[in-house]
Design goal:
Radius of gyration of chain B: 21 Å
Oligomer: heterodimer
CATH topology of chain A: Alpha-Beta Plaits
CATH class of chain A: Alpha Beta
CATH class of the largest domain in chain B: Alpha Beta
CATH topology of the largest domain in chain B: FAD/NAD(P)-binding domain
Distance between the termini of chain B: 54 Å
Helix content of chain A: 10-25%
Shape of chain A: globular
Number of helices of chain A: 2
Number of domains of chain A: 1
Number of strands of chain A: 4
């Protein structure tokens, strides 16, 4: 992952449609029936998930 | 639960169920794992399909049909309305019922289904896919298989786990939102398509009547539009304009792969089918018919390969070849037309609509529409010429 950048997806608002998984170049998003998770160790920080999410849920976080 | 099968299918949508049914009918033992609690739900689909196309593939049951429409109403950015009835009718499905019946038909043929069963990984032996790992109600178990068929949708992980590059990059996917709405008055006989930068830049919005005063109201847009506004906000605006005051009964998000034809859909011990194999039309986003066509080809090839005890990439490649022969040309054509159609400016779309309005309605066939587009847009003409002649 790019240093200091990570993405979070608020599962409570998520529809689990899988668009983020489809566009992720790194296979960094784990989706189940009603859970979704960005795997920080795989995330490359490109932000494609945030752009393409129909609900605009993935949020970029800058760490210290 | 058995711990082995000839063929394991991941995903119980139309592609998965039809592959499972075809393989079971051909004598293979088949298991299907669906991650959701119920086959057919949630419905991530506008539910429109060509009547003739569907009837050519399966005996259509009345319970699948929410509404049969005789044509389409195209709405240009300036509000110009063009009605087109291309001869064939369209069916707005009850996908929940449709999917459940396809699954039941597969089960009838001998396939064993398990829902709320999430496949979390593949078993590999010497680089060949040899089964799946399943999470079901808090328990994890493995099922060995000679062939795994990934029918796990646009978000397919199965292909990636087997080393195929199944990513759908942002330029090749439409980000979609849909509401099933009650309390509006759609034309019960027409499917509406709305175009333009205010509604769905680079894509389109739809209103598909589902009977009575209900309809699926949704839209899909490409990456450039997503960078302007979230698809869900485009939809809220469209709902406010098209059906103010109507009740939203269901919200759903989703993505449709709009990709060039893909032949790279098999690996050793593995096949992909449906949205996972990017088999939807890149022009309309419609994927049901191709899912059934490819599902059947995949199931039959898989059963044959089990019989011959050869699940190599080379052997399974017969399916990829058959699919490209059955659907490759159409996907290629739709992909080229898509690039032109969704690149038209509001002014150009208005121009096409005005040209079409001048054609008497009874003569507004698909061909006449294309000719009108041809007349106004040399670039479109060139692509269509390459596509059709």
């Amino acid at each position: 992952m790019k240093q200091n950048v990570r993405y979070r997806i608020a599962a409570a608002a998520c529809d689990f449609c899988g668009v983020c998984v489809a566009v992720c170049p790194a296979g960094a998003i784990e989706l189940k029936e009603s859970s979704v998770r960005v795997l920080d160790e795989r995330c490359v920080g490109c932000g494609d998930c945030a752009v393409m999410c129909p609900l605009g849920l993935p949020v970029r976080e800058e760490a210290e | 639960m058995r711990d082995r099968a000839d063929i394991v299918v991941v995903g119980g949508g139309p592609a998965g169920s039809w592959a499972a049914r075809s393989a079971a009918l051909a004598g293979a033992s088949v298991m299907v794992f669906e991650k959701d609690r119920e086959v057919g739900l949630p419905v991530r689909c506008a539910e429109g399909v060509s009547s003739g196309g569907l009837r050519g593939l399966v005996e259509v049951r009345p319970s699948w049909i929410a509404r049969e429409v005789r044509g389409a109403k195209l709405v240009a950015p300036d509000g110009t309305v063009v009605t087109a009835c291309p001869g064939d009718t369209g069916i707005v499905l009850h996908r929940k019922v449709f999917d459940a019946d396809l699954a039941a038909m597969a089960a009838e043929a001998g396939a064993v289904f398990l829902t709320k069963a999430c496949v979390t990984g593949l078993l590999l032996r010497n680089g060949t896919v040899s089964g799946v790992r399943v999470e079901h109600l808090g328990r994890v178990f493995e099922v060995a298989a000679k062939i795994v068929i990934g029918a796990d949708g646009v978000e397919s992980a199965v292909g990636r786990w087997a080393g195929l590059d199944t990513r759908t990059p942002p330029e090749f996917i439409a980000s979609c939102c849909q509401a099933t709405v009650a309390g509006l008055d759609p034309d019960p006989d027409l499917a509406e398509f709305h175009f333009g930068s205010a509604v769905a830049p680079g894509g389109y919005a739809w209103v598909f009547p589902k009977g009575g005063r209900t309809a699926n109201v949704g839209l899909g847009v490409p990456e450039a539009a997503c960078r302007i506004k979230k698809p869900v906000d485009f939809l809220k605006d469209f709902l406010g304009r098209r059906c103010p005051g109507a009740s939203v009964l269901t919200w759903v998000a989703g993505g449709v792969p709009l990709c060039p034809p893909r032949g790279d859909i098999v690996a050793d011990g593995l096949m992909l089918v449906g949205d996972a194999a990017h088999q939807a039309s890149p022009l309309t986003g419609g994927g049901i018919l191709n899912a059934l066509i490819a599902g059947r080809l995949a199931g039959e090839t898989a059963a044959e390969c089990v019989r011959r005890d050869d699940a190599s990439k080379k052997a399974l490649g017969a399916y990829a070849k058959a699919w490209m022969k059955a659907g490759g040309d159409e996907i290629e054509r739709d992909f080229r037309i898509k690039k032109v159609v969704y690149g038209l400016s509001d002014e150009e779309l208005n121009g096409v609509a005005r040209t079409l309005s001048a054609i008497p309605e009874e003569k507004r066939t698909a061909q006449a529409i294309f000719k009108a587009g041809l007349f106004r847009h040399p670039k479109l003409a060139f692509e269509l010429f390459r596509s059709y002649f």
